[in-house]
């Protein structure tokens, strides 16, 4: 199986390679092509992968491509994990958001919408390149904001695009681990989330980074009520500590961690403003330091440095939210990172070799959520096999979620139109309609600042 990874110089690439190395099956990835616009970073990651591959006789052959079409040509799967503008772009967006008094997280609110305006032209270019050079290949999208980029790409590649995210899988794993520790589910239940059988079924729906776990079936029995009735169990995992047991019990479902930006918007913004630097600013500095140092190290030394840097990165994940929630600490197992890599491999094997799996992915709605257009991309459980992607049953969105999902999706589809039609007025409308941006005046100020800081947004007229 031939896999192309776009964004091959990205910091998280070794996580994907680690998963590929662990797969010694007959259906493993045998060829991995990396492509990135930053040759220096690509060289550092290639050196690290070389060190990781030592002693693994079935390690994929790694090659570097110099152009996009060269990279995707002949691929069975294309995995997109690019970051247009680099981590520095995220840092600038967070500073703009702070100056205008709104949240600026890279996938939520202004940060996500502006990131989409910067990234959609590249996503369109990638989709067209795949259509020309690898017309049978599937695109697995991990590029943020994942729901928007998947929706844009599907307009060109149709159902050969699947968006993935590790957040729902992590949520389900944490809930099952909590129930397992309390002796309420079988010991192996948590490991069944990616097992591809019917023992564990997740009734989860919404948008990327905006979904709710409404039922959790283990051997046909919904075990989520066993969690919801015990506040001490809710407080035993990260989402429970973030939102609080009383709020989760009132919702009657477990929200995706990113809903903290909506449910506790003021508290999170205040915590963010009180921090010395936003997470994007911290990560941009960290990344510069890592790649500069790693360039002068051997592969094995760079790999050790990568591990140290990765751990510090994970410790700061959603730091403002955890401060806003009263100083919530991350569990040790959540510092391991990853998850998206195993989801991606499961998707590839299901499509290529009929290794059926049930996963929460980002795909076109096709009537599953009647409140949204059919072509809107949603995040929901699907069964994936060699015939493609089939919808699995989901509960209707709870009443409290409908308006929020519709508002956010409307903003997302406006920003897609703004990018494709190069219209500044639609970009302002997208900002203004998002629940985390309080008004047209703020929307105009945000876009004006963004166009000053990002010359590539001059296409919006």
What can be said about this structure in brief?
The chain is an alpha/beta fold. The chain contains 20 helices and 13 strands.
Explain this structure.
The chain has 461 residues and is of the alpha/beta class. 50% of the residues lie in helices and 15% in strands. Strands 3-2-1-4-5-6 form a six-stranded parallel sheet, sandwiched between helices. Strands 7, 8, 9 and 10 form a four-stranded antiparallel sheet that branches. A three-stranded antiparallel sheet has the order 11-12-13. Helix 1 runs parallel beside helix 2, helix 1 packs across helix 17 and helix 4 runs antiparallel to helix 20.
Question: What percentage of the residues does DSSP assign to strands (E)?
Answer: 5-15%
Task: Tell me, briefly, the overall form.
Answer: globular
Number of strands: 13
How much helix is in the residues?
40-55%
- Separation of the first and last Cα atoms: 44 Å
Number of helices: 20
C-alpha Rg (nearest Å): 21 Å
> How do the strands of the widest beta sheet line up side by side?
3-2-1-4-5-6
Major beta sheet, specifics?
6 strands, parallel
Q: Would you tell me the structural class of the helices and strands?
A: alpha/beta
Mean pLDDT: 94
Poorly predicted sequence stretches spanning 5 or more consecutive residues: none
């Amino acid at each position: 199986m031939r896999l192309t990874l776009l964004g091959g110089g990205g910091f998280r690439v070794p996580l994907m390679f680690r998963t590929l190395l662990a797969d010694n099956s007959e259906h493993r990835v045998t060829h991995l092509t990396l492509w990135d616009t930053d040759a220096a970073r690509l060289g550092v990651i290639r050196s690290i992968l070389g060190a990781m591959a030592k002693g693994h006789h079935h390690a994929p052959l790694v090659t570097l491509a110099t152009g996009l079409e060269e990279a995707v040509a002949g691929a069975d799967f294309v995995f997109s994990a690019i970051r247009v503008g680099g981590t520095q772009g995220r840092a600038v967006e967070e500073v703009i958001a702070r100056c205008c008094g709104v949240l600026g997280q890279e996938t939520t609110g202004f940060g996500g919408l502006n990131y989409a305006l910067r990234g959609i032209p590249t996503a369109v270019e990638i989709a067209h390149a795949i259509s020309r050079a690898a017309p049978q290949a599937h695109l697995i999208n991990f590029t943020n904001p994942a729901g928007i980029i998947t929706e844009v790409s599907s307009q060109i590649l149709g159902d050969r695009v699947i968006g993935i995210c590790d957040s729902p899988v992590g949520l389900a794993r944490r809930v099952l681990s909590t129930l397992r520790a309390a002796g309420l589910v079988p010991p192996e239940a948590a490991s069944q989330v990616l097992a591809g059988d019917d023992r564990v079924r997740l009734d989860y729906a919404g948008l990327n980074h905006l979904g709710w776990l409404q039922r959790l079936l283990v051997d046909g029995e919904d075990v989520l009520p066993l969690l919801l009735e015990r506040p001490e169990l809710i407080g035993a995992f990260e989402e429970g500590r973030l939102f609080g047991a009383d709020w989760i019990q009132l919702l009657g479902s477990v929200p995706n961690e990113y809903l903290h930006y909506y449910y506790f918007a003021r508290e999170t913004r205040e915590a963010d403003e009180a921090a010395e630097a936003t997470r994007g600013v911290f990560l941009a500095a960290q990344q510069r330091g890592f790649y500069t140092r790693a360039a002068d190290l051997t592969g094995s030394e760079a790999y050790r440095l990568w591990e140290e840097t990765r751990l510090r990165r994970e410790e700061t994940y959603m730091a403002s939210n955890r401060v806003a929630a009263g100083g919530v600490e991350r569990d040790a197992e959540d510092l391991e990172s990853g998850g998206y890599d195993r989801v991606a491999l499961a998707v590839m094997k299901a499509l290529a070799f009929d290794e059926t799996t049930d996963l929460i992915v980002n795909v076109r709605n096709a009537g599953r959520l009647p409140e949204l257009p059919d072509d809107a991309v949603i995040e929901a459980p699907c069964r994936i096999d060699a015939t493609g992607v089939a919808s699995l049953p989901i509960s209707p969105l709870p009443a409290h979620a409908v308006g929020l999902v519709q508002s956010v999706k409307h903003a997302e589809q406006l920003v897609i139109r703004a990018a494709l039609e190069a219209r500044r007025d639609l970009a302002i409308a997208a900002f203004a309609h998002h629940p985390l941006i309080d008004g047209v005046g703020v929307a105009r100020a945000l876009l004006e600042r963004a166009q000053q800081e990002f010359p590539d947004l001059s296409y919006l007229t």
